[in-house]
Fold these 3 entries.
Entry 1:
Amino acid sequence: MPRRRLGVVLLLPPSVSTEIDGLRRACGDPSLGLIAPHVTLVPPVNVREENLAEALGIVRRAGASAVPFLARVGPPDSFAPHSPVLHLPLDDTGGAIARLRASVFTGPLAREVSWPFVPHVTLCDELAEADLVAAKQLLSHYERDIELDALAVLEQRRDAEGLRRWVAVAETPLGAPVTVGRGGFETEITPSRLGGPDVDAFLATELAAGTAGEAAGSGIGTRSETPSGALPLVVVARVEGLVVGCLIGWTAADVARLSAVLVAERERGHGIGGHLLGHFMAAAARRGALHVQGEDLTPQEGALLAARGFEPLHPGTLWRLI
């Protein structure tokens, strides 16, 4: 049975990641570019394909049971003499990180470890003793508070050059998802930067079934890709853990781009598309978006926007909140 090499981490905010990558570059970190700055909760573990859904469910439940929090990172330290790793420790006085780690370190994501859990962000995997001392002295004033608001599942994959890179394949925001009632079934609506393997499988299944053309806002694969500098925004609807709809888009500056809305054929008529769009716009507004942009919007998408107080500036391409 195929296995997937996964890890569960807390990813840092983009601005902090850029800053810490600068420190990693200065320290000569050999893993720079192969993995983003992060706090490891579950180190690399091989998960059977048949257990992938269970693993993703564990991460989603862990995220739903927590809330975003601030943590102080720095100043640099090392694990010497046991390991020549330069890192930024995180102050976990409140125990939020330890609780998250305990929540995800179970089932197919559990594994044996050699060292006790210490929340940290690695700056360089291997440094000579003299370089460790010098780096700790030079960076001794580096401290800052960061907000941690999402869990991410990373997967190790080989790229075209044969390098093993860790790629984020799923993300779960910290905080309980919004739950809406729907004919006796509760639908969970979750916005994040990534969909995940279950969303990919949902899209593939719906498209293969030939239902996309009738979906509210199909066009998947026909609209432009996320441009450089834009931040993806994916909103997913789940019923009893199963994906029943998703909205794919992105934000950049004051524009939110609507790329596609797809609701499972059997679930249409229950207002799921409207909930997806409503949460998409709420998340986009928190990022500073004032306009909605889309190419070749379907009548269903236009109706969803108009029902939420938008008016078209240019037919089918740009809408403004009234």
Entry 2:
Amino acid sequence: MSGRRHLADSLRWSTETEVAAIEVLSAGLGMAGPIAFAALAGHLPLGAVAAIGSFAVGGVSAAQALPQRFRALIVSVVPPALAGLAAIAIAGLGAFTSIAIVVLAAVAATVGGYSRPMAVATTRFVLFLLIAINFVQTTPYHAAAVGLMAAGALWAFVLNLGLGVVMRSLGLIRVATAAAEAPQPTAAQKRARWQRSLRGASGWQYAVRLTVCLAIGEALSLLWPEHHLYWVTLTVALLTERPLEAVPVKTTQRALGTTIGVALSGLIISYRPPAWGIVLVIGAFAGARPLLRARNYFAYSILMTPLIILIMDFSAQPDAGVLIDRLMATLIAVALVITANLLAGRALRHGAG
């Protein structure tokens, strides 16, 4: 792919996926609600921890009937819940925590090859494990941190269902007619295909790339803990994709978007908005998530950077040093992912030859 076409694909605005108003509203209120409640109680940082839980609830179509919507929401929160329990089990153990993270990610990446739904679930597990471990390790009350995240997820879950019922009763959204589903492979067929894939190097390439990059990221965090380089591993998990491509468009979008997002974060932080200003900013940014995720990942990355910085570094009052750390960590992660893609591609071509 030429550089010009690659850049054009990075900036292309997609209109293929319809985003309902309920998805925007539930995403915004889902994150802003816990922070607003915490602000009223005088414990604003606790609201930031709970707001992370609302990330677990999303991507469920507003046009689904209530039973299907309920099941989809349940499926969406199971991987983050397991990740929270895993974070409690391995937190605070020094280097062993880093080793456990890498091992769990390797297992999840390998198991994800079983089916597409399993791939989505295991990817969510890895992402939320990296997020949860950051919060859990910043407090001696590990279970309390995960409990707050669970409360945030429950809030977003109930809000999502409740808004759907209200808006459908008002005729603002319609329940889509279920389309005829293509025949799905049986569990035995999925297992046989997965086992066949693991007999060749191509079946392991994703797990190897993700594991190696996460291991390097965790090593950097251990060597320079003062720079909070957990952002490297989080970005690696976001950018590493199962299909092997040297420089995916998503990687370019993430790198450029984060750079601009860091500058936007600096503007927000330098203004130092009051508590309710922060609630409004987070609510607006979170509400725009579903729309930008469906339209353009570059724009989505611009918005997500200040949102995640405000949430994950809430109690630390992020300054210019934190922003520089985030930018450098993103660039390190991009370099790791691209290098791993190039080396894996070369190794597979050499093995095939």
Entry 3:
Amino acid sequence: MSESSSRRYKGGERLRRRGAAPASIHLLMNRHVFTAVRLLLVAIGVTIIVLAVNWRTVMVIPAGEPGPGGHTAEVERTLLVLSVEPAGPGAMLVQTDAGLEGEVAANWIRPGIFDIFEHANWWWVLLGLGLVGCVYPLQATRWWLLMRCRGLDAPWLRTLRLVFIGAFSNFFLPGTEGGDVVKAWGATRGSDRRVEAVMSVVFDRITGLAGLVILAAGVGIFAAESNTARDIGWWTAGAMLVVGVGAIVAFVVFTRGWLQLPAVTKTFGRGLPARLFEAGRAYASHPGPVLAATSVSVCVQVLLASAAGACAWALGATHDITVILAVMPILFLAAAVPLTWQGAGVMEVLGIALLAVPGVASVNQVVGLLVLYRCLELTWGLVGASLMMGGGVRLHPEHLDAS
């Protein structure tokens, strides 16, 4: 290489390095911004919950009504209550921290969140635990169907085992997607069709989200009597229609070669979008298993929403089942966004907005039902922890042993 060529080569290398450095700095800054936004959302959610929840039992006396001791005020008063005892239909005998005692209307009492848990009906919680337990075999069947139609040889029991491990792993990453990462990793280990294995996990998640949307839209439009649930149904159905039409248009444009998109993807490499469209085209040739997987997803979401309803009823909420079936899928969708751990803060804010109704459920009961629901999932997730310790994370251990 001549001296002039060498200088040009070194100069080009310096320019490339200078171009790479700003790109890496830009990527790092984007990550920091995303982390800051997540922390801000967590802080906002936690602040709202702390301010909205009654940590101790209080009594709210309406303006102009006599409280304990016969005192009347022109403004609403909130008094801290030390003890509450039934005193007949619609009445409670209370003692306040100021030493006042008397009989008051039962609807004046706002139980603290710890008192709500203390007086919970744990039979409802056990029912919810059983409902959540029925979900994992269904989820394993859904994923197994999606793998089998692509020719991926996956034993059902091994699939169920990895689903349990994924459920445990959900508690270690933001949102509820950690299990998908672990499932994809376990499915690809020892497999010679890694792309198809990963795409089966992706489409398993897609059919799961489709089940959420179909449940919320169907119950909200056709079954719910609550205005809130009905509005959720129509908005969900509209969003589902927009997303569906967009997906169909994109699929047709890509597969028919309009706008020369296949040529573009070949030029710039076969990245995730191209592989998603290829997987979508492959699954489109197996409508039976895809429809079956989506139907299983609806059953899964009905069970999960019903388990959340059991948690609500355990704490004394009186929501109708149709309201629970319409609202809980929206909260599950919010939890799936990888912003906070298990959707903490995001689910509570949405739940308070949609489920906290005077005379039906208090803010404390809504927050409490979400806490109980996460405990149910964690309980079954511990099964996945024991399975993971017993045999690692892999769907095809025999392939690894053979290699």
